Amino acid sequence: MSFYRNSTAAxxxxxxxQALFAVPTLAETLGISLSDDSNPFYVQMRKGIEERAxxxxxxxxxxxxxxxxxxxxxxxxxxxxxxxxxxxxxxxDAVGAGPAYAAAAAAGIPIMSVARHAISPDQTMAIKMDExxxxxxxxxxxxxxxxxxxxxxxxxxxxxAQTFRNIAQGFTxxxxxxxxxxxxxxxxxxxxxxxxxxxxxxxxTAHPDVQAxxxxxxxxxxxxxxxxxxAGKTGQIIITGMNATGPARAAVDSGGLALTVQLKPLxxxxxxxxxxxxxxxxxxxxxxxxxxxxxxxxQ
Length: 299
Known about the structure:
Layout: E1 10-15, E2 18-24, E3 29-33, H1 40-55, E4 59-62, H2 69-82, E5 86-89, H3 98-106, E6 111-114, E7 125-127, H4 131-145, E8 149-155, H5 162-176, E9 180-187, H6 193-206, E10 212-215, H7 218-230, E11 238-240, H8 246-254, E12 259-262, H9 265-280, E13 294-297
Parallel strand pairs: 3-4, 3-5, 5-6, 6-7, 8-9, 8-10, 10-11
Antiparallel strand pairs: 1-2, 12-13
Helix pairs in contact: 1-9, 2-3, 4-5, 6-7
């Protein structure tokens, strides 16, 4: 199996009327392994990947990892055994997923990370946002909102997911620049609403004077919103999330959630397929695209 294709048939990818690159139209087989089936962010990303693959005439197989690195490694090994042409993966664990990348590389199959990324020499490319920059933007916003003083807690994301560690790094760099802000609790946890609820209940018990809670995504943040509401403190505690899902936007409008971050996962998924198509077409010199982001708060 080769990364290189000799077809001359291609279509152009346009953004704002400008052609970015030509995408080969040869039929390919694509294996897709995203880290979480139920997270609205990944639901939209999968939709974008599958829509774009269909437009290009590709066949694809999707198998969700459900935040299990063991499941994900097995899935990728199965993709390799079936002889797919390429793999898009959002790794559950940046290091733990290494055998999956190694298996693909050993078979000569390009494996690109999307959203989350791996710490692996076998990663073909990582299509990810400016993770530290996103965290820094959230942190700067919160420092301003707190006027540089107060107690905060952090619910970062899954243990082993380097993406969320990088976002948290950017966030804490901003927080540490404000000498009046103290991080009183810090957790790593799956990005699920029930986890946000459970951990926030514990935070409110241990630190009833907490003034803000940073969350790694919207599902976690919505759990935090629920716990804060149950404690009768809606509007008293600033909660931040990320992904700008429909329920999160509604929570911003209602005042329960102070901030979310727009990432456009559907477009991100389409971009991942186009990047893989470009690679399969023989271009291995282009820079990985960096999807943008914007902060969403109540106007």
